[in-house]
Amino acid sequence: MTDAESHAIAERELCGLVNGMAQRIAEHVRRRAVVLGLTAPQATALRELTGPMTMRELAGRMSCEPSNATFIVDRLEGRGLVERRPHPTDRRARQLVLTGPGTELRERLLELLTEDSPLAGLSTAEQRTLHRLLERAVTRP
Q1: d(Cα 42, Cα 31) in Å, to the nearest integer?
Q2: Using a CB cutoff of 8 Å and minimum separation of 24, what contacts does 96-103 make?
Q3: Helix, strand, or coil (residue 132)
Q4: Contact indicator for 82, 97 with CB cutoff of 8 Å
Q5: How far is CA 25 from its chain centroid?
Q6: Model confidence at 13, in pLDDT bands (50, 70, 90)?
Q7: Cβ atoms 96, 55 nearer than 8 A
Q8: Using DSSP, how many helices (H) and how many strands (E) does the chain show?
Q9: What is the pLDDT of residues 21-64, one digit of tens each?
Q10: How far apart are CA 109 and CA 132, in angstroms?
């Protein structure tokens, strides 16, 4: 076997592992979201709303189009979990802000997401190492 063939096999196996982990995480989020009466995309939006941000910023964090994020936020807003407020420095933009009940639900969600997480079997140091390696792979030009 050539070095190129060996490298291709290793890369394929690694891609399979990353895909498998992504699927396990997505299923974990879905199961935890249901407990709180949320869809997985709604749970993802709440998880990513770490502070006031624009719809475009949220969509970037969710890896989706702004129109998809808008649909999700509309549902969260309808439940009184998120508000759209004027942006403090950009008259054309609006910021998404968690309401009191939204903040409480987000905190509960974060607790549930840590329970039996697919990453729970890794130590904190291993999680940091995995984070650094994945970040390097994702941001590599």
Answers
A1: 12
A2: 96/49, 96/52, 96/53, 96/54, 96/55, 96/58, 97/52, 98/46, 98/49, 102/46, 102/49, 102/76
A3: helix
A4: yes
A5: 10
A6: very high
A7: yes
A8: 6, 2
A9: 999 999 999 999 999 999 999 999 999 999 999 999 999 999 99
A10: 25
Q: Dig out the tokens for 104 from the structure.
A: 């409480």
pLDDT for residue 12: 92
3-state secondary structure of 117: coil
**CB of 105 closer than 8 Å to CB of 112:** no
Whether the pLDDT of residue 141 is over 80: the answer is no
Instruction: Give the tokens for residue 49.
Output: 């709303």
> Could you give the domains of the chain?
3-139 (1.10.10.10)
Residues paired with residue 86 on neighbouring β-strands, in sequence order: 94
**N- to C-terminal Cα distance for the chain?**
29
Amino acid present at 58:
L
Which tens digits make up the pLDDT trace of 82-113?
999 999 898 888 999 999 999 999 999 999 99
Structure tokens given for 34: 């249901």
